[in-house]
């Protein structure tokens, strides 16, 4: 009985990790999606402007190569404590990186990884940043230097 | 904040339209950076701030920069935002607490290679013309506003004087102008008693929505590898859709 429960839990965890769809009546991902949806609704409800604007929550790993992504956010959504009527553009880097290398360090590391003797893989990172500036609710200028990514590259 | 939507505050709309354009946003962030910093003597680096402002108005799309400068307002919150838009604490005020006599910036401007032509252009496009049918230069609205924008970042930078009207003036007065009092008043009157300038600023309101759509053209920012837009707000205002449409034309 206990072994069966353990097995079920194990299968559940596996399905969550691999992102398999089990259908609306199964366990695994749909239940997780249900959680996400209610979390979304709660967060959307907390949105100061009362606008429910989240799309379906993104999967952790984006398909596609390392590239620059863009989000348009109300200033409050930056979570830094500022309030403003303006929306700002926040850019970040995400995507897959090929296993190649640009430095000698990277060359050796790629070889070791290929042999299974080193962890991890190259990651998608900003190589340049840009400032974000806005007028806050008290009509004072706020400048957040180097807050947003401006270009991406694969490193490490 | 009042929590008002962008649709009710034209100046917020203009700010967002600027943010959505890479040139406008970059140049705006640059002048904010210059005008907010502090020089060694405890004052802002006025020359650098003003230079960054001139670059902003010269290089960013005019539709967007003018929308920021001339956004029509019906509330003090909107008008205060409009008044603060080019960091006037540094760019508008000079050193010292009291405004100088207008003869000072006027004389400096006339001797300046940068300021003099801009002032002449402003006088040519905005000064009343007694012989003209309506007393103003013909079809002058847009040219007058461009010429006004050209003065921002010079020693005769004009700005809105309060948040309850659309009155503008340079930071100076005609108290201590001696026997050049008339000359002083005539210069200051170009801003404070100018029907043609007032009319041009008011007329900007009627060109509003097309102005902001005009700027939608293929983006050629230096490091742009923008491939995806996600998480955009849905249906909050037309302007939130415009950047998405612009980026979709790239795909």
Automatic annotation (TrEMBL), chain A:
<keyword id="KW-0339">Growth factor</keyword>
<comment type="similarity">
    <text>Belongs to the TGF-beta family. GDNF subfamily.</text>
</comment>
<feature type="signal peptide">
    <location>
        <begin position="1"/>
        <end position="21"/>
    </location>
</feature>
<comment type="subunit">
    <text>Homodimer; disulfide-linked. Interacts with GFRA4 coreceptor and RET: forms a 2:2:2 ternary complex composed of PSPN ligand, GFRA4 and RET receptor.</text>
</comment>
<dbReference type="InterPro" id="IPR001839">
    <property type="entry name" value="TGF-b_C"/>
</dbReference>
<feature type="domain" description="TGF-beta family profile">
    <location>
        <begin position="57"/>
        <end position="155"/>
    </location>
</feature>
<comment type="function">
    <text>Growth factor that exhibits neurotrophic activity on mesencephalic dopaminergic and motor neurons. Acts by binding to its coreceptor, GFRA4, leading to autophosphorylation and activation of the RET receptor.</text>
</comment>
<keyword id="KW-1015">Disulfide bond</keyword>
<dbReference type="InterPro" id="IPR043401">
    <property type="entry name" value="GDNF_fam"/>
</dbReference>
<dbReference type="GO" id="GO:0035860">
    <property type="term" value="P:glial cell-derived neurotrophic factor receptor signaling pathway"/>
</dbReference>
<dbReference type="GO" id="GO:0008083">
    <property type="term" value="F:growth factor activity"/>
</dbReference>
<dbReference type="GO" id="GO:0030971">
    <property type="term" value="F:receptor tyrosine kinase binding"/>
</dbReference>
<dbReference type="GO" id="GO:0048731">
    <property type="term" value="P:system development"/>
</dbReference>
<dbReference type="GO" id="GO:0005615">
    <property type="term" value="C:extracellular space"/>
</dbReference>
<keyword id="KW-0964">Secreted</keyword>
<protein>
    <recommendedName>
        <fullName>Persephin</fullName>
    </recommendedName>
</protein>
<dbReference type="GO" id="GO:0030116">
    <property type="term" value="F:glial cell-derived neurotrophic factor receptor binding"/>
</dbReference>
<keyword id="KW-0732">Signal</keyword>
<dbReference type="Pfam" id="PF00019">
    <property type="entry name" value="TGF_beta"/>
</dbReference>
<dbReference type="InterPro" id="IPR029034">
    <property type="entry name" value="Cystine-knot_cytokine"/>
</dbReference>
TrEMBL record, chain B:
<dbReference type="InterPro" id="IPR003438">
    <property type="entry name" value="GDNF_rcpt"/>
</dbReference>
<dbReference type="InterPro" id="IPR016017">
    <property type="entry name" value="GDNF/GAS1"/>
</dbReference>
<dbReference type="GO" id="GO:0009897">
    <property type="term" value="C:external side of plasma membrane"/>
</dbReference>
<dbReference type="InterPro" id="IPR037193">
    <property type="entry name" value="GDNF_alpha"/>
</dbReference>
<dbReference type="GO" id="GO:0030279">
    <property type="term" value="P:negative regulation of ossification"/>
</dbReference>
<dbReference type="GO" id="GO:0001503">
    <property type="term" value="P:ossification"/>
</dbReference>
<dbReference type="GO" id="GO:0043235">
    <property type="term" value="C:receptor complex"/>
</dbReference>
<dbReference type="Pfam" id="PF02351">
    <property type="entry name" value="GDNF"/>
</dbReference>
<comment type="similarity">
    <text>Belongs to the GDNFR family.</text>
</comment>
<dbReference type="GO" id="GO:0007399">
    <property type="term" value="P:nervous system development"/>
</dbReference>
<protein>
    <submittedName>
        <fullName>GDNF family receptor alpha 4</fullName>
    </submittedName>
</protein>
<dbReference type="GO" id="GO:0016167">
    <property type="term" value="F:glial cell-derived neurotrophic factor receptor activity"/>
</dbReference>
<keyword id="KW-0675">Receptor</keyword>
<keyword id="KW-1003">Cell membrane</keyword>
<feature type="domain" description="GDNF/GAS1">
    <location>
        <begin position="11"/>
        <end position="90"/>
    </location>
</feature>
<keyword id="KW-0325">Glycoprotein</keyword>
<feature type="domain" description="GDNF/GAS1">
    <location>
        <begin position="102"/>
        <end position="196"/>
    </location>
</feature>
<keyword id="KW-0472">Membrane</keyword>
<keyword id="KW-0732">Signal</keyword>
């Amino acid at each position: 009985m206990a072994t069966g429960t353990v097995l079920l839990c194990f299968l559940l965890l596996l399905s969550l990790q691999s992102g398999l769809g089990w259908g609306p009546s199964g366990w695994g991902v749909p239940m997780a999606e249900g959680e996400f949806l209610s979390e979304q609704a709660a967060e959307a409800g907390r949105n100061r402007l009362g606008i429910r604007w989240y799309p379906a929550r993104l999967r952790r790993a984006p398909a596609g190569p390392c590239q620059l992504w863009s989000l348009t956010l109300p200033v409050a959504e930056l979570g830094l404590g500022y309030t403003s009527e303006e929306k700002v553009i926040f850019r970040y880097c995400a995507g897959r990186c090929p296993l190649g290398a640009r430095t000698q360090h990277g060359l050796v590391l790629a070889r070791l990884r290929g042999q299974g003797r080193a962890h991890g893989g190259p990651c998608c990172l900003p190589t340049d940043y840009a400032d974000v500036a806005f007028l806050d609710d008290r009509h004072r200028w706020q400048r957040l230097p180097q807050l947003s990514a401006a270009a991406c590259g694969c490193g490490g | 904040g009042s929590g008002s939507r962008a649709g009710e505050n034209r100046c917020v709309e203009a700010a967002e339209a600027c943010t959505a354009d890479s040139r406008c946003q970059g140049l705006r962030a640059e002048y904010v950076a210059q005008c907010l910093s502090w020089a060694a003597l405890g004052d802002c680096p006025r020359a650098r701030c003003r230079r960054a402002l001139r670059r902003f108005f010269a290089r960013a799309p005019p539709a967007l920069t003018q929308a920021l400068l001339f956004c029509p307002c019906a509330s003090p919150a909107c008008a205060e935002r409009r008044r603060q838009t080019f960091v006037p604490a540094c760019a508008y005020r000079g050193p010292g607490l009291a405004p100088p006599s207008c003869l000072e910036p006027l004389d400096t401007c006339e001797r300046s290679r940068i300021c003099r032509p801009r002032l002449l252009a402003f006088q040519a496009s905005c000064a009343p013309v007694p012989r003209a049918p309506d007393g103003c230069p013909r079809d002058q609205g847009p040219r007058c506003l461009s010429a006004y924008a050209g003065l921002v970042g010079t020693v005769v930078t004009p700005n809105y004087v309060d948040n309850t009207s659309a009155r503008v003036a340079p930071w100076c007065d005609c108290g201590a102008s001696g026997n050049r009092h008339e000359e002083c008043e005539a210069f200051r009157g170009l801003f404070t008693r100018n029907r043609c300038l007032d009319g041009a600023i008011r007329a900007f309101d009627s060109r509003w929505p097309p102005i902001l759509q005009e700027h939608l053209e293929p983006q050629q920012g230096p490091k742009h590898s923008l491939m995806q837009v996600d998480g955009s707000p849905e249906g909050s205002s037309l302007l939130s859709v415009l950047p998405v449409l612009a980026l979709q034309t790239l795909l």
